[in-house]
Amino acid sequence: MKIIIAGAGAVGTHLAKLLSTENHNITVIDESPEKTEALTQAGNYDLITFNNPPTSIMALKEAGVSQTDLFIAVTPHETRNITCCMLAHKLGAKKTVARVDNAEYMQRQHQEFFMQLGIDSLIYPEQLAAREIIDGLKRSWVRQYWEVHDGALVMLGIKLRETAKVLNIALRDLCPPNSPYHIVAIKHNNETIIPSGRDELKLGDIAYFMTTKKYIPYIRELVGKEDYADVKNVLIMGGGRTSVHVANMKPDYMSIKIIEQSAERCTRLNDLVNTDDIMVIQGDGRDTQLLIDEGIRDTQAFCALSPETETNILACLAAKRLGVRKTVALCENTDYIDMAEKLDIGTILNKKTIAASHIYQMMLNADVNNMKCLNVANADVAEFIAGEDSPITQSPIRDIRLPEGVTLGGLVRNNVGSPINGDTLIQPGDSVVVFCRSGYIKKIDYLFRKPNGGILNKITSFIHG
Predict the structure, then answer these.
(1) E strands in 196-316
(2) pLDDT in tens, 17-65
(3) Measuring CA to CA, which of 53, 114, 229, 419 is 20 to 30 A from 164?
(4) Could you tell me the sign of the dihedral formed by the alpha carbons of 428, 429, 431, 437, in that order?
(5) Cβ neighbours for 322, distance < 8 A, ≥ 6 positions apart
(6) Taking the model in full, what pTM does it have?
(7) At 378, is the pLDDT very low, low, confident or very high (cuts 50, 70, 90)?
(8) Could you tell me which residues come within 8 angstroms of residue 198 by beta carbon, excluding any fewer than 6 positions away?
């Protein structure tokens, strides 16, 4: 597939590194020689760079936009991203995606408007991150939560403590064929395991469970998390866009305080959030005494959402020492994710990988409704639609040879979710949840592909995150 990425910033660089490992024809356009040079020197990546403005028609033609399957605009400037996607579409690009910073553009009623402009998909990383944070705050005992097919299936990423009843038991005994849940991935130390029946869960592992909503209380009991208090009071450090979206998405029963150093930003925050439900405080979120004065000892969750990864990690450590059980750290630097996990920070989010999940979905030939990167586990999970006469529908699962590092978590049929076992026969139209190590999704999409299937054209699910 020929892909052009406009913008060699954090998101563009992360995407280029991810995609260049899969034998795609990657071109990166950025007018900054320093950024493109840093990208090419970061590793042995198979890509081409152009130092031109991505809104230059001549530069787009020179980069081969007329033969491009996917044009991705992820510069820091929203208007530039929209403009170069419009130009790329007119010059022959088959699909375009633009990173934006305006929540209004993400509203469903504007979808057709942007399609008419030649923009197939919009990505708003801050809004996507905020949704993940809210999902986590609603379930204080879960590290990561993901709904499939409007909640017919759910994935729970859970850190296993001494109270867990699932430790040191072979998965074949822990998850028999009639089990209401399936353990689909395990993060053990620095290793990601797509487990077999011989594997066991160990103390300190992060286990990823696939189940239905009905059995969430049962799994909570199994992992020994019944004593985790529901989150009602939240302290947020940093008043950026992600914090604003978290504040405006919060459920009615939550109370939120935002601590922001800049007096000017505090004034702006009071205009951006509903101040009847949210308090904005000027101060340094790393100040322990300020946190105590603002009631952190009576707070169930602390979110460090500043632009500085190191600051967020240290702030979460301080909050944990003050008794906060649920902490969330925004890690813009992916190099810090493993370290943060070793420090037991809590939920770790990276906006670049969240955006990459949504964009990567466009490159699959199968009909993929939903995809998610599991940052800590170095794994991907995607929701595939089984095509008519596709290989996955021809035999029971036990007779289908899945690639190593891949497992099926569950399926949704007629809006009803259920786990998958060896006797399961997948039918055309079923939504199937696939777990695999990062970068392995392309190894399995052929199983779900419709005959003569081309490039994915169903993209509405991730226009809205």
Answers:
(1) 206-211, 233-237, 255-260, 278-282, 301-304
(2) 777 766 788 999 999 999 999 888 877 778 899 999 999 999 999 999 9
(3) 419
(4) positive
(5) 288, 291, 292, 296, 297
(6) 0.75
(7) low
(8) 170, 171, 172
